[in-house]
């Protein structure tokens, strides 16, 4: 996808400028060892204690107060968290609940985030994997990852009222596959086996699409013919890994047709760019995201590849104090399916361990929005 949101992120200034206004700055809790009020050299907050974070981790404040002068700071990556496709998918379930009432059935987790799924369950969504578990006449939503043609056909045959929350950027890949297949192309799909998006995209065809997960996969794949061979990718891959695999494909199949615009989406690209920019400035990167979230896992990998230890957490309670020990500059980001409320919870947790300031790094402002499907628009007349 092209547009302003696909441009590379601006370089983080050497002294990343605080963009959180003073009135929006987190309030330092009145805890032992911390005093707020005096001006911090690189932010509006400061603590008069030293190495407080380390002291909490060691459980020895006295030792920390005699320690070095490093003050723990949280640097927030920008952009992070929800993308336009996730926003739309959640809105679709909520709009369907508002319009048709509970229960609304959702095939697979609407997005890969535990908090989001549990929240929608409380509101009346029922998550299923098998359409046989949906009663006749029910309202059904397809998840943001997309579905195969076989699933679409089965839902139609069973007569459900279907709303498709497939991200439009995934649908774009489906459309491309169908179009090129009609022109006689065979496909290599770069992606992760078992991921629902991969199953949905590969399931656009009955045959002629081969999954390639890595360089070994490129060496081993055996297309029936190579004159009309095209590549598509999962939207949430590591940009660098995909480029490496693509280079190997081109080496083995020089005539291969690449996507006109890369299939990796703007949100994946922007969040990975933000972690790349942030990593040289931090000692550890915490990624808020569920273990099933592909793009969240890729963010942690990006930091690790740059030599920065990185950990994923599904919620604040999962954050382990020892991860922060001796690492006063803490980078924080979130996958495209992780809501900001979880990020704020992690910030609170890190502050409770002694971090004294939070600074949002400069980055791309995303303005992408996708409309709701017909029949679910807020101003749509009741059925
Ligand atoms: S991560 Fe990308 S492809 Fe996935 S829902 Fe978000 S915008 Fe769409």
Write up this protein.
By secondary structure, the protein is of the alpha/beta class. The protein folds into three domains: 31-81 and 267-360, 4-hydroxy-3-methylbut-2-enyl diphosphate reductase, catalytic domain (Cobalt-precorrin-4 Transmethylase, domain 1, 3-Layer(aba) Sandwich), CATH 3.40.1010; 84-168, Rossmann fold (3-Layer(aba) Sandwich); 169-252, Cobalt-precorrin-4 Transmethylase, domain 1. It has twelve helices and twelve strands. It has helices at 52-58, 61-65, 84-100, 114-123, 149-157, 168-182, 196-202, 215-220, 239-252, 266-278, 294-305, 340-352; strands at residues 73-76, 104-107, 125-128, 139-142, 161-164, 186-190, 209-212, 229-233, 284-288, 310-313, 329-334, 357-360. The strands form three sheets. The protein has a five-stranded parallel sheet, sandwiched between helices. Strands 3-2-4-5 form a four-stranded parallel sheet. Strands 7-6-8 form a three-stranded parallel sheet, sandwiched between helices. β4 (139-142), α5 (149-157) and β5 form a beta-alpha-beta unit. α10 runs parallel beside α11. It is flat and about 60 Å long. Mean pLDDT is 84; it is low at 1-69. The structure holds iron/sulfur cluster. Iron/sulfur cluster (SF4) is lined by residues 83-86, 144, 167, 169-170, 235-236, 265, 267-268, 295, 336. Iron/sulfur cluster binds at residues 83-86, 144, 167, 169-170, 235-236, 265, 267-268, 295, 336.
Task: Indicate the topology.
Layout: H1 52-58, H2 61-65, E1 73-76, H3 84-100, E2 104-107, H4 114-123, E3 125-128, E4 139-142, H5 149-157, E5 161-164, H6 168-182, E6 186-190, H7 196-202, E7 209-212, H8 215-220, E8 229-233, H9 239-252, H10 266-278, E9 284-288, H11 294-305, E10 310-313, E11 329-334, H12 340-352, E12 357-360
Parallel strand pairs: 1-11, 1-12, 2-3, 2-4, 4-5, 6-7, 6-8, 9-10, 9-11
Helix pairs in contact: 10-11
């Amino acid at each position: 996808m092209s547009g302003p949101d696909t441009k590379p992120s601006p370089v983080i200034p050497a002294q990343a400028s605080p963009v959180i206004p003073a009135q929006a700055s987190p309030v330092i809790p009145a805890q032992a060892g911390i005093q707020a009020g005096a001006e911090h050299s690189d932010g509006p907050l400061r603590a008069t204690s030293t190495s407080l974070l380390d002291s909490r981790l060691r459980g020895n404040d006295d030792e920390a107060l005699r320690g070095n002068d490093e003050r723990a700071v949280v640097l927030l990556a920008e952009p992070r968290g929800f993308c336009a496709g996730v926003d739309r998918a959640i809105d679709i379930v909520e709009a369907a609940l508002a319009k048709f009432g509970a229960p609304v059935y959702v095939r697979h987790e609407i997005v890969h985030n535990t908090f989001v799924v549990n929240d929608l369950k409380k509101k009346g969504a029922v998550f299923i994997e098998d359409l046989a578990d949906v009663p006749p006449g029910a309202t059904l939503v397809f998840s943001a990852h997309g579905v195969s043609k076989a699933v679409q056909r089965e839902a139609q045959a069973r007569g459900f009222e279907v709303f498709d929350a497939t991200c439009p950027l995934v649908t774009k890949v489906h459309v491309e596959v169908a179009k090129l297949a009609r022109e006689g192309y065979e496909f290599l799909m770069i992606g992760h086996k078992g991921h629902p998006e991969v199953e949905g995209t590969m399931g656009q065809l009955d045959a002629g699409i081969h999954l390639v997960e890595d360089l070994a996969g490129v060496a081993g794949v055996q297309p029936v013919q190579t004159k009309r061979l095209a590549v598509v990718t999962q939207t949430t891959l590591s940009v660098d890994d995909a480029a490496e695999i693509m280079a190997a494909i081109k080496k083995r199949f020089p005539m291969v047709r690449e996507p006109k615009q890369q299939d990796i989406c703007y949100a994946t690209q922007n969040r990975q760019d933000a972690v790349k920019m942030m990593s040289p400035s931090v000692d550890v990167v915490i990624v808020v995201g569920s273990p099933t979230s592909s793009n969240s896992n890729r963010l942690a990998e990006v930091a690790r590849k740059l030599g920065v230890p990185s950990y994923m957490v599904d919620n604040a309670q999962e954050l382990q104090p020892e991860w922060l020990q001796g690492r006063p500059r803490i980078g924080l980001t979130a996958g495209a399916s992780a809501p900001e409320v979880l990020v704020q919870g992690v910030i609170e947790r890190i502050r409770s361990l002694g971090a004294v300031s939070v600074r949002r790094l400069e980055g791309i402002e995303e303005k992408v929005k996708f409309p709701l499907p017909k029949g679910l628009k807020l101003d749509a007349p009741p059925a």
